[in-house]
């Protein structure tokens, strides 16, 4: 199979190490990974701010760039969710998009649903307690875990794949699926509320005794990371691919 890396704009600019870890992880399973240079923003900020024409243009551009690949894989749950669940608002009748939509995956989804991995490409030892952060888009639109409001048996994709890491101690905050408060442009429009929610969420993760907050969406980790740095807290945010590739110790 050939797999195209979909790297969201803010990951490209602020967290390139997450993009490189994603590529390394896929290549470790013998996959031919391609990074299409023509890719750009998926259009989520445009959609969130009411620019329907701009969001439509972004959706058509994304489809044109990625339509010829077997799979499109990204380390950002919120951007994948936008492509899979919100592009139909703009280009539902586009035949290329209809064919592409089921081939777009968040990285943990891809490892579990397509590759069906039961091991990591190389042994990884990470002897640290970590607290799992379930991001809203991944939780409720991609099915990364069981939302507590549905009152169904608990499951977590992140927890399950972290069991492949030697020495790790996985913990859950008391309110395991509470929002971190980022919400994209919500953090700009309502900064006081956003920060207050983020402070509460960081405190919940700290209460587990974890050294790291681990998630699959870099936007949430970015928001909580900013609060952590501002408050000089010892806990650190870490994208799950950094642990799965053995890069976490240098984060």
Low-pLDDT stretches: none
The averaged pLDDT comes out at 94
**Count of helix runs:** 14
CATH class of the largest domain: Alpha Beta
Helix content: 40-55%
Strand order of the largest sheet: 2-1-3-4
Order of helices and strands: EHHEHHEHHHEHEHHEHHEHEH
- The CATH topology of the largest domain corresponds to Rossmann fold
Distance between the termini: 31 Å
Question: Could you characterize the architecture of this molecule?
Answer:
Residues 3-83, 130-224 form the Cysteine-rich domain. InterPro entries: Cys_rich_dom. With 251 residues, the protein is of the alpha/beta class. The protein has two domains: 2-114, no CATH class; 129-250, Rossmann fold, CATH 3.40.50. The protein contains 14 helices and eight strands. It has helices at residues 9-14, 16-28, 44-48, 52-66, 77-86, 88-91, 95-100, 107-114, 136-140, 157-162, 186-189, 191-206, 218-231, 240-244; strands at 2-5, 32-34, 71-74, 104-106, 129-132, 169-171, 212-215, 236-239. It has a four-stranded parallel sheet, sandwiched between helices. The protein has a four-stranded parallel sheet with strand order 6-5-7-8. Helix 12 (191-206) packs across helix 13 (218-231). 43% of the residues are buried.
